[in-house]
Write a structure and sequence with these properties.
- By secondary structure, the chain is α/β, with parallel strands linked by helices.
- Strands 10-23-24-25-21-22-11 form a seven-stranded mixed β-sheet, covered by helices on one side. A seven-stranded mixed β-sheet has the order 19-16-17-18-12-15-20, with no helix packed on it.
- Helices cover 25% and strands 22% of the residues.
- It folds into four domains: 161 residues, HUPs (Rossmann fold, 3-Layer(aba) Sandwich); 108 residues, Glutamyl-tRNA Synthetase, Domain 3 (Glutamyl-tRNA Synthetase, domain 3, Alpha-Beta Complex), CATH 3.90.800.10; 135 residues, Ribosomal Protein L25, Chain P (Beta Barrel); 115 residues, Ribosomal Protein L25, Chain P, CATH 2.40.240.
- Strand 2, helix 3 and strand 3 form a beta-alpha-beta unit.
- The two termini are 17 Å apart.
- It binds adenosine-5'-triphosphate (ATP) and magnesium ion.
- Adenosine-5'-triphosphate (ATP) binds next to helix 2, strand 8 and helix 9.
């Protein structure tokens, strides 16, 4: 695994669990609070753009921002950065809120939208024009880009840069008025076209877009650019700590400059701190790519259980606790790194191991008839939901003449040390009794259709009366009592460790076997009443969760994760 731990040495770590990797942002905030910076206030925000679903990378930012507010008795705003009407949608807003709540965080009354500030941002822009700090450029996007220069070459000042304040005000008013076409004009701040920082070269603040906005409808046809809206929104909300990912390091001078231009008092400004995004091996975490997977139907939607989205992970059966634990374990640093996906899988297993009832299900059934078991008789056995707590909650498991075991638990000509079922061999049916295989019935094509077995009535509960050793124990389900289900076995969506190494060909790395759908699975009867979202361990098989689409007539279960890390063994599976 690549080491997710950064090299920052925190100066003060008083309350943080010393076993956890460093979180330099938390350490910094703790120090600032102690020093009374920002008047001791801590106001953070989580600022998603509602143009897709949240993924596990966002979970890191959510845990960090909401976590700081919790730890320092502060406030974390949920702010939708909805300045781009063409790609944004109210459905995404709804999904994002649901996911944050599921993850266990609450923004209370502090739900905000950058679009709430459109009027305020507009007024600030007008003031900048009046102050001679912004002008309307009437060239095309291409012309503006071509004269911006690059790191080696300074930019060229726009011919319109000298427009009078009156002319700029009138033009900006017209841009807002709706009569001018998209792309005909933009509002730019008067930065410095010779600056070595290309972002400072007269950054664009507004563009014309005749697009319907999911909240402001058709009120506006000019929309602020992210760089202009983002910092000002933080300032308007009196955010003290603007925590964002590393790619914003080089936006920081511009954000500070904008605050200078609007006259934000130094003590009242948000302070930006950048941290490294969370990335995983075998995983793609870019909303653009995830949208592509959805649109091209490589998955069945944003909440497909193979997706690294919070809704996908939820549907798959992952718990919010596991994700929060994971976010603690990866720490917060300023060094970009890719976390081994097995760290996530470990956190999921660990949590499900501690919380999932153990039940039995047969996924690939093989019929077994107990020829010496009376017809129509049913014997019930007590089985604890947690085998390590035999006195804890339990259910009754019925045994009848016909039952199912797993096909792979029988071999006609077994190798040595095959302790499962074979002709003449004995095994234990978990919680029930000992059976012995006496006949193998085959179909015309030679495939095994049914096993005829004898049960040992003196072995009730699974312990033979004569104390003979029985090595194998199988899970099983009584045929007449079984609950039918479809079970989907999920595996990683990508086979390559770094699917985006070559962005043009990443789809070639999709795992063609990322899901296997098994119908005709047999679940133990205690699951007849289970509801969507129920999580269990199917003994010997893995952790499973009943799918959101399940109905009483058509039950669907998803495998969340296998019991062991099968990938570690299969190195070079790719
Ligand atoms: P993507 O890169 O997936 O398109 P984004 O950064 O464009 O995501 P936003 O909606 O802007 O998506 O993200 C909201 C917040 O989540 C931002 O503050 C961003 O820094 C943070 N964030 C996004 N991806 C990650 C990640 N992988 N790890 C940590 N934080 C992230
Ligand atoms: Mg973003």
């Amino acid at each position: 695994m690549s080491d997710p731990v950064s090299k920052e040495v925190p100066t003060q770590r008083t309350e943080r669990d010393p076993d956890l990797p460093p979180n330099f942002v938390e350490d910094m905030v703790r120090e600032q609070v102690a020093q009374g910076r920002h008047g001791g206030r801590v106001v953070t925000r989580f600022p998603p753009e509602p143009n897709g679903y949240l993924h596990i990378g966002h979970a890191k930012s959510i845990c960090l921002n909401f976590g700081l507010a919790q730890k320092f008795d502060g406030q974390c705003n949920l702010r939708f950065d909805d300045t781009n009407p063409e790609t944004e949608d109210a459905d995404y807003v709804h999904a994002i809120k649901k996911d944050i709540q599921w993850l266990g965080f609450d923004w209370g009354k502090n739900e905000f939208y950058a679009s709430d500030y459109f009027q305020k941002l507009y007024e600030l822009a007008v003031q900048m024009i009046k102050d001679g700090k912004a002008y309307v450029d009437s060239r095309t996007t291409e012309e503006i880009r071509d004269t911006r220069g690059d790191y080696y070459k300074p930019g060229v000042e726009a011919p319109d840069r000298g427009r009078s304040v009156e002319e700029n005000l009138a033009l900006f008013e017209q841009m807002k008025g709706g009569t001018l076409p998209d792309g005909s004009h933009v509002l730019r701040a008067k930065g410095d076209m010779a600056s070595t920082d290309v972002k400072m070269r007269d950054p664009v603040m507004y563009r014309i877009r005749h697009a319907h906005h999911h909240r402001t409808g058709d009120t506006w046809c000019i929309y602020p650019l992210y760089d202009w809206a983002h910092g000002q929104s933080d300032y308007i909300e009196k955010v003290t700590h603007s925590i964002c990912s590393l790619e914003f390091v080089n936006h920081r001078p511009l954000y500070e400059w904008f605050l200078d231009q609007i006259g934000a008092p130094p003590g009242d400004r948000p302070e930006q701190t950048e941290f490294a995004k969370l990335n995983f091996t075998y995983t793609v975490l870019s909303k653009r790519r995830l949208l592509e997977l959805v649109k091209l139907k490589h998955v069945e939607g944003w909440d497909d259980p193979r997706m690294p989205t919070l809704s996908g992970l939820r549907r798959r059966g992952v718990t919010p606790e596991a994700l929060r634990t994971l976010c603690d374990r990866v720490g917060v640093s300023t060094r970009d790194s890719v976390v081994d996906i097995s760290l996530l899988e470990h956190a999921i297993r660990e949590d499900l191991n501690a919380t999932s009832p153990r039940v039995m299900a047969v996924l690939r059934p093989l019929k077994v008839t107990l020829q010496n078991f009376p017809e129509n008789e049913v014997i019930e056995f007590d089985a604890p939901f947690d085998p390590e707590k035999p006195e804890g909650p339990s259910r009754k498991i019925p045994l009848s003449r016909v039952l199912y075991i797993e096909q792979e638990d029988f071999m006609e000509t077994p190798p040595k040390k095959f302790f499962r079922l074979a002709p003449g061999q004995e095994v234990r049916l978990r919680y029930a009794c000992i059976i012995k295989c006496i006949e193998v019935k085959k179909a015309a094509d030679g495939s095994i259709e049914e096993l005829v077995c004898e049960w040992d009535p003196a072995s009730r509960g699974g312990t033979p009366a004569d104390g003979r050793k029985i090595k194998g124990t199988l899970h099983w389900v009584s045929a007449t009592h079984a609950v039918d289900a479809t079970v989907r076995l999920y595996d990683r969506l990508f086979l390559a460790e770094n699917p985006l190494k070559d962005k043009d060909t990443y789809l070639e790395h999709l795992n063609p076997n990322s899901v296997e759908v098994l119908s005709g699975c047999k679940l133990e009867p205690s699951l007849a009443e289970a509801k969507a979202g129920q999580r269990v361990q199917f003994e010997r098989l893995g952790y499973f969760c009943e799918d959101a689409s399940t109905t009483a007539a058509a039950r669907v279960w998803n495998r969340t994760i296998t019991l062991k890390d099968t990938w570690a063994k299969v190195a070079g599976k790719e």
